[in-house]
Each structure stands twice: as C-alpha cells, then as structure tokens.
Amino acid sequence: MGEAAKKLAQSDPFAIADVSPETQAAVERFLYRQAEFLDGKAWDEWLALFTEDGHYWMPAEEDQSDGDGVPNIFWEDLNLMKMRIGRNNHPQAHSQAPNNRLCHVVSNTIVEHEDANGDVIVRSRFHCAEYLRYEVRQFTGKYRHYLKKTDDGYRIALQRVDLVNREGPYEYVMQWWL
Question: Model confidence at 67, in pLDDT bands (50, 70, 90)?
C-alpha cells in the first residue's frame, strides 16, 4: 500500500480538523480550480496539480483501502492519465465524437486532518454532469484528497472518488475523470 492510500485508510473519514480560515479557503480554492481545469479540458494544468507519484483512484468497492493490484474503476498514475488524454484527444477518437462537455460542482469541503508539514486530508462532495452523444449523464459522490503542501501550493498525492452508483450500469464507458 502506498503512503497516500495508507494515510487515507488510517484517517477518520468523519473527523473535522480545527484549521485556520486561510487553510480552509486555500483547500476550497484548490478543489474549485481542479474542477475548472477538468471542465475546461486544461489537461496540462490539471496534471500539474498532482505530485510526481500522485494517483487518481475510483475504487470498485466502498470498503477498499488501497487501489494497487485490485479491481478498480480507475487507478491511474500520471503516465496512465497522460495516455488517456492522448487517446481521447486523438483526431480519430470516435468515442469523443462529438466532443463531450463536463460541469462539476464541488461542495461540503471539510479538512479532516492537517499535519505539521501542512499536508491535509480533505473530504468533499461533488456532482458532475457529462454531455456526450446528445445526452446528459449525472455522476455524484464524494471525494477524499490527500494533498501535499508545497511552495507552490497544494498537490494531489491521492484523489479518491467514491461514486454513489459505482456498481450501476452505464451505456458507455467513462472516458474522462470526475
């Protein structure tokens, strides 16, 4: 189990840390900015939000404590994310014709834990509407982020996305991240 997954697994998912208003606002701005990058398909900017060893994780089961070596909807490092972007942006990517559009709403941001280095574990809720193939799909769920504090602001060491309907049927595969 990686360090980031271990930290999330060992933390209390109902904790509320006593953080400064500045920390709370910085975390919220970070999550809102991430949503805007995803909605705007600003892929280089979005990838830059991750640490070099960062992961995007959408577990297949609610009780999963790690994504490595077990079934997941997504368990992607930077290389896999770059590969997905390249595949979806390819001129002959028929799955993206016409191009999709996303709209994220992020709310209920709670910092669970802040360590001495300023690294934080955060939970929030999201709603994402995806327009693709002349239809709108709705996704909703909760995020948990392990964010590393750097000189340039926060970076994602791990983003866990728990869909409300993770086991539900989908007409087509999710191409982008929620």
Answer: confident
Positive or negative, the CA dihedral 77, 60, 163, 11 is negative
pTM of the model: 0.90
Residue listed under structure tokens 């709670």: 110
Domain boundaries, the chain: 3-163
Task: Please state, in angstroms and rounded to a whole number, the distance separating the CA atoms of residues 152 and 53.
Answer: 17
The CATH code of the domain at 3-163 is 3.10.450.50
Instruction: Give the pair of three-digit tokens for residue 131.
Output: 């327009």
